[in-house]
Amino acid sequence: MFAAFPLLALPVLVYNLIALTLTGGLKSHDANARMTEQLFSLRMTSQVEWSVTLGDLLLAASLVVLFIELLKSTTSRRIAIINHSLSMILFIICLVEFLLAPAFATSTFFLLTIMVLLDVLAGFIVTIVSARRDVDFHPDAG
């Protein structure tokens, strides 16, 4: 049953936990400040400091999770349909949060929402393509 769980729900959950711990919760306008504050910096070989923020780390982890989700969507098992449905529900939740809650109106959450949308689209497209392969249409059959 774990295969049906959309893994992109984990970074969305992390963002929700970060947003809910802000003063003011969902109505807070401080989420962007929290996402863009520098956690650490690294000196590059070009002698420039690279600042890494919480939003950067969350998006990097989300990209790895998106890659795993795309690999999961290539299976044509029955459980994949449940995964696609749950991913669609997750996308709707993300979209509602992005549009209605000030704490979610950040570029970081927008990019997370786009990743969830790409997971939904990829899942349905892969399912349709694999279903087409399973049904063989011959023009000379009659």
How would you portray this structure in words?
By secondary structure, the protein is mostly helical. It has one domain. It contains five helices and two strands. Strands 1-2 form a two-stranded antiparallel ribbon. Helix 3 packs parallel to helix 5 (107-134). It is globular and about 65 Å long. The N and C termini lie far apart (42 Å). The model has no long low-confidence stretch (mean pLDDT 87).
SSE layout and pairing:
Elements: H1 9-20, H2 31-36, E1 38-43, E2 49-53, H3 54-72, H4 78-100, H5 107-134
Antiparallel strand pairs: 1-2
Radius of gyration over all CA atoms, rounded? 19 Å
**What is the arithmetic mean of pLDDT?**
87
Helix content, binned percent = 55-70%
In the sheet with the most strands, the strands line up as 1-2
* Count of spatially separate domains: 1
N- and C-termini, Cα separation: 42 Å
Question: Would you report the number of β strands?
Answer: 2
Helical run tally:
5
- Described by the principal axes of the CA atoms, the overall outline is globular
Low-confidence stretches: none
Strand content: 5-15%
Helix and strand composition category? mainly alpha
Task: Give, in order, the helices and strands.
Answer: HHEEHHH
Largest sheet: 2 strands, antiparallel
